[in-house]
Fold each of these.
Amino acid sequence: MGTAENLNSLNFQLTFGIVGMILLTTFIIVFFVVYQRRLLQQQLRTQQVEADYQKELLNAWVLAQEAERERIATELHDSVGGLLSATKVYVSNVSQQLASEQFKLFKEKALQTLNENIGEIRTITNDLFPQSLEHVGIVAATRRLTEKLTDLKQIQVDFQFNTERRFHRDREKAIFRVLQELINNTLKHSEAKHVTVDFHFTADLLSIHYKDDGQGFDRQRYEANKDRTSFGLKNLESRMTFLHGSITYETAPGRGVEVALEMPIFNPLLETNTHGNTNQVSLS
Amino acid sequence: MSEELSFLLADISSYAGIVPSLIALLRFKHLTLVQRHLAILVWGGTGVAGLAYLFSLFNWNNLSLLHIYTIFNFIMMSIVFRTVIPRKLFYPLLVAFCAFALFNSIWVDQLQTLNVVNRSVSAFIIMFYALTFFLKTLKDMQVQRLELMPLFWISIGALFYNAGSFFIFLFSKDITPFEELWLTYFGIHSAFTVLLYIFYTIALWVRPKTSTV
């Protein structure tokens, strides 16, 4: 009797143990396979989103380049081209047969348009690549750029910085372009009265805070029309991506635009190619 | 389970290693490192099964072979799973188990009896290896096609076989006196062995694209 009970008990324990273990194993394997597949799909989706975003950035970059070329062409055509045509007219009218009064007038007019031409070319080249950036660095160059705000639209500028540091010229240029775009946006669209620019350097980072009190824009509308209307902002994002930095902005209709930029100063990929000016200099 | 079915399953399990052994032999040049280690394990297992059959023909006790095979199987499985076992654990586990198994086989259990403890401990650790592989695969998320990964099939086989056989190993001394029960679980164990070799065959058959696991 005892033996039969032992036998039954043993049989039950073994059956229960084996079935339990097999069910557990099946569950673990099924869970593993399903979960792995889901994670993989999620990973692929994330990669796709990232690839789309990179494509958008590249697109914005190309569009920005095209727009810049168009702007330069228009400026050259409208200002330099017009002035050179006028100079040509004055110079072609100058001849030995003219009365001295008229000769003097045409000569002065020709010289005046030539001077205007030189001024226009200086403005355009300065827009293309500001010499101040090369010579004095990002903070001073940006300060000079903000002077445009006061000169052209009487916008009051509050400019702050903790120090000036030089870093790789490509990175300086890229961040300068971002600031140029922000300042141009303020000039063209914002109707702002007051702008704040704040540079803050730490050992490895540059943080820039840019704020205007202009009309701002509807962010949701901007997001909805992203592909068609906003390559300017996308261009800023693509430049900040190039800098391994970040850009965040806050805006609402009638509440101005507030932009925070942050980027590492050094990039190991570029450090071997610097123009050696990673030292700290003070602004005079 | 009938006596005939148990013996039939036992016979099939004795020959189950032949197919993967032949595949390993024919495809050895093209096998990855993990597959080659598995091939050695399969050849060893098939060799031991053949020897055990010979012993039984001469009515010799063949349980001593099981003691040797348990250690060999554990070493080879550890090598197969080497890429997923934490480095700190690999050698300590290997050395500790081998020392423990040898001590147990020589001084505690007798070589002519079932090595219950060794097989149970070995099964437990191998299940741990397989689960570690699953966890690591989920954590790394580097594998695009699991079905082309030999270690995936080895893990499934190892998990099913050891989970199914764990309680049989553990209770084997208790069920030996009950002949009918013993034959039933002997048959079930044989079925799990066949299943294990089916998974080993798939593991040797698949051609992973880049990974060595």
Note: Chain A has a mean pLDDT of 81.
Amino acid sequence: MAEELKVIVFTLAHEEYGIEVDKVRTIERMVPITRVPKTPAFVKGVINLRGIVIPVIDLRGRFGLAETEITENSRIIIVAANDLEVGFIVDSANDVMDVMSDAIENPPEVLGGIKAKYISGVAKIGDSRLLILLNLVEVLSRNEIIQLEQFGE
Amino acid sequence: MEMNQYMSIFIDESNDHLQSLNENMLRLEQQPEDIGIVQIIFRSAHTLKGMSATMGFEDLAALTHEMENVLDLVRNSKLSMNGQIFDTLFKCLDALEAMVQDIINGGTGKGDVADLVERLKAIVKGDVNGSGVVKATVPAAGLSASLVLDQYQLSILSQSLESGHNAYYIEVKVREDCLLKAARAYMVFDVLERNGEVVKAYPSVQEIEQEQFDRSFSVYYITQAEEGLLRDQISRVSEIESAILNAVDRASLEELGRSQGEAEKAVEAAIKESAATVAISTPPPVSLVSAADSNATRPAATNAGNAAPRTIRVDIERLDSLMNLFSELLIDRVRLEQLASEVRRNDLTETVEHMARVSADLQNIVLKLRMVPVESVFNRFPRMVRDLAKSLDKKVDLVIVGAETELDRTVIDEIGDPLVHLIRNAVDHGIESITERVKLGKPEVGTVHLRAFHSGNHVFIEIEEDGKGINRPKVLETAIKRGVITDEEAKNLTDDEVNMLIFAAGFSTADKVSDISGRGVGLDVVKSKISSLGGHVAVHSTLGAGTKFSIQLPLTLSIIAAMLIKLGSEKYAFPLSSIVETGSVKRSEIRTLHGNRIIDYRQSIIPVVSLAALVQSPDYRDDEEAETEMLVVRKGDKLAAILVDEFIGQSEIVLKPLGKYLAGSLDVVSGATILGDGQVALIVDPNALIK
């Protein structure tokens, strides 16, 4: 029996991505971000989310895609995983979708230029839509931040 | 019975009692003759026993029970305290503490107490290393506490002994399957009455007649008959299992007289104890003196009401959430103040000003709620120093001053370990051995002073001993050997700088490694811990006269006064506590020395740090300006000038963590705060600016 999975759908460089709904705290419009010095370029800084200071990263930068200007549609998705709370800047976020677990396939090696380890699967929706499901544990892994810091030094 | 709801009370109370046990044991060790202290200890142990038994922690109860037995002998002057007993009792306290700790951590509170219980039992039996400390043991006849003679009965016994009668203590046991106990007992009494006189019976004759006894009863008996004859006659009564006759002589009679007095004292103590127990709503266990039971309850009711508590216990989480809510309010207040100054309406401004005053008072109270006397950390040290001194064969006095000084709870939680380190260090490395001290003409007993006091926005904790002091050449030699500094550097160091070397990682001057300190991992940990709390540590030492460690700590870690500054489009906050002065400096006054930028500041030369360069400011560079604002900050006795763009002003800010994701990757920034306009500003760690 296939299970139903609720995901938040967002776009990044014209691709559609999904994050399981229970990992998402809120979705916010862009707010002023305070830059934090000596962090990797994709760490945009910190924001004030109703009294709590939360780090924000640009998901394009995180995946090695070209970063673009912030637009009207840009959103910050606050996710919570690995005991961390982090905001993701995405191009737009506007949908919640049910995905059947039997429609999810293992990711191909490279997808839209993103390393496979950041992806937990690809869901086929209808005939032509593909939804890339993120592996949050890897995306939020701090190992790369630490490596980047060492590289920077 | 559902116990969970009592668990936290049990834990709190047991900790209190353990603490009081520890403290009073230490006091008793100083004044072993003071029976008043023994009484206090006894009461604590007794309450603890009752509580643990009620909660079902049997090992705890068993151990405290045995301790109580020993203490009981002591307070009745049957046993005098000696080193052996102290050590055993302290070991018991350790075991109790371990068990309570286990309970706190969700364990079952089980512990292997058999060994300790045995040792305590041996003490009670008077078997203290065969030294026979016990002044008098209970007569071998095993006179039970249940059979207490009053003065009148005692005098009858002694008079009849004088007139040549025999006195016996007789214990009669009826058979288990005996159907008519009262009848059999009556027959025994009949035999006895025919030959002599029963002075006292337990249970009382009436009770025996009404069959209100278990299987045995005992009597004091005066007779002229032979012991053998008596025994023979009693055992002829059927269904009697045994009759034990013990002759009572003059010596044991005196003993009885004494235990008589004790029994009264015990009743008194039991009354007080039950008063204490009533107050914490744990029913007292069956009292130690059965005769006291009926009397104990009545006065307890009258005693219980006299000490209404002035404090309440509050869950720490509630305080934390109160603090968080208040921080939110503070942020809104700053925002309101800003809005009011923009709107410029008098009544609005007045209201906001009033609110600001109220919230300032509120802030004081909220912060005070979180303040805890440093006593809660200090109170474990007397015991620690005692044990240490003992194991090192030294004599050390610990003098604590200012234990009532209050510190934020967060600081209190963290400061314990560093202090333990420093005190161990003082006793182990600082204070000399007794022979050495005598040779140097110093008093045999070394002194360690532990002081805490307020000064400005800081709390100082000092640890000072009158030991050997820091040996400069030895420190330098080790530092060079360990590669902490080079030969060249060593020559130019001041005494205080040399002293600070002992805080360097991997440094230890102890010639031999002891299990107390001297692994060389201690002091650098101490230093980093203290700096992580926003404080710092300094050392002053005089060779041969002693060393003083002085720790400076911030009063609180959650709300601080800060100077807000602007750097192009960005805002940063500096903790006010580290700022010495604000001012401005002309481009031309900044000189270069060995590639480092410096300025003259009040007859000394201090380094210049560009904040813009340090944080890689995207839109501000200080080298484009002819005159720059500067902050002079201090770390210990080092100063540095920080170049900034513009001062915004002083403000109370609420410290917020930056989030785990960024934790550990920052050195310049120590945290964040939310400004009145809702934006996040980063807090600069001045300690990171001064190398």
Note: DSSP finds three helices and 13 strands in chain A.
Amino acid sequence: MLLQQFINGLTLGSVYALIALGYTMVYGILELINFAHGEIYMLGAYLGIIILGFLTAIGLTAYSLPLSIFIMLALTVLFCSSYGFTIEKIAYKPLRNAQRLSPLISAIGVSIFLQNYVMLTQGATDKVFPQVFGSAGFELFSTRITYLQAAIITTSGVMMAMLHVFVMKTKTGKAMRSVAQDKLMASLVGIDIDRVISITFILGSGLAAVAGIMVAMYYGLVNYSIGYSAGIKAFTAAVLGGIGSIPGAMLGGIVLGILESFGSSYISSEYKDAYAFIMLILILLVKPEGLLGKRGEEKI
Amino acid sequence: MTILKGKRSLLMMTLVIPLWLSFLFLPFKGIRAAGILFVVMAAAIPLSKLAADLIGRIRSPFPDLRRFVPEGARLNFLLLIPALLIPLFGQDYITDVAILSGIYIILALGLNVVVGFTGLLNLGFVAFYAIGAYCYALLNTKAGIGFWSAMPLSVVLTTAAGFLLAVPALRLKGDYLALVTLGFGEIVRLVLNNWDTFTNGPNGISGIAPPFLAGTPIGRLSWFYYLVLIFVIINAFVMKRVRSSKTGRAWMAIREDEIAASAMGINTLMYKLYACAFGAFWAGLAGTLFAAKMRFVSPESFTFMESVFILCMVIIGGIGSIGGVVVGALVLVFLPEVLREVQMYRMLALGCGLVFLMVFRPQGLFGGRNASSSR
């Protein structure tokens, strides 16, 4: 029972971690709470359904299921990254030097727009994600793990590892870190800030897209309003780990997922959504820099 | 005057941007809709750019509306006369919407104290509205207390809630403060939704008594309208006086530069606490009026979107400007009613409008140099 809840929490938590990475990367570079990030995750879930439906219609799923899942993932990531890129160009880039409140309001605007955009084009009712994995699974230490859960945990782990390598080892990753530290200095040494910010949004949105597909598969149902609560939870995860810190976001997501899973099975499932908020408030009040974050100095 | 900057920008506007946006739209509605979108945008984007360039001096699509608004007292009378006449000429439906907009004006002006005057972003303001509404609902249905005795109680309780949240939350700044308030708003809603024995859960509380005046219930809409109007006038008057008082100036000093303000001897924490409590005070009043008007409350009325909606009222009109906030509230309540035909698209338009407003006119339609940044 304990281990079962742990696995459930780990599954959910690794998804939160993937979304949280997008928040933390954007916040690290722009100091902006990208309110629309949760909607990218929702778009990912919808695009997964749409593309899989299309592939079924042309008969590819019947021919080869792994291939069509791969194509679905690739296309969804492509589309979501494009959305992230476009949103940044339209709604955030013109506001880069504006007052602090403006980009946040703009982000809320984008979030409202995307929710209603999906509601109008795809309908307000729940959409069903085809059960490609079924409920098959295996037993480990007398705990049942479905293949889907295993796939979610592995995929998230691999993606986080890849992101870590990208940020720490590649030249672009180095540029990202330097922009996060000091934008002006970075631009003085010849880093194209606009390009780095675009890449950040593309990467974050791609991760959110994968998270969206995986959650859609896990729950089987998708609704246009799922982005908001997932976004808030992922943001909580990012703050918990220390906003701006990439390992922090991973840790925060997993901790939050496990906490939520234990909370809803041992305390009360009615307040399932409240745990994240209570957690958020407690961290901000007690340790605003998070588990792995560094305490920032206030600039005058 | 260059109308278009060469061939490259023309190509961007007629081909690249529309093609890109249609590509993004493609999976959601199919190839035909995407094609239509492409044609529409390929025509609309260059045309609107051309129009904007031709007008030339007006750089933003949102003109400075203050030029058309008379200053000071005259404005109040101009707004008041039609406001007094609404129930005489309008149908019940219009009076109904007017009552709602009055309640929203009180709410938005309350939030304006926190966001506009003091520069603290609050994303969970609806929590205080909910507390006010539920206080009256519970006091009335469980204890049988009437409107006039319950109102002070629920307002005091809401003010206390505002104060109590502010004490720990004000240690944080900027976005973090916004998030704590958001979390608070959601927790209040979840508690109202799940505490079945006390709040009756998602079903809400019905059978709330209307206010009594001289022993008779105010059942007629027009009477209730005048009741709300009186509170709106009191509210706007108090706001105007407070803004130019010592407290109001201290708030605005904090908004402009907190460190400088504290260097000038302002107890910034104290004044921020006042602002939060004062804002919550009006939210409590609005909540009480709402519960008395609807005679029914449920957690559904107090979602995060409602907080955003109130925030939009403050921002659209112009952060910090009292007249602007009133107009913002009127626009956001009446516009959806006018646009009932295209109701499906109104939230879409609201989202778009917010983004464009921030990009082209971040200080709001009526905002001037008084309402500057809130960091």
Note: The longest helix of chain A spans residues 2-30.
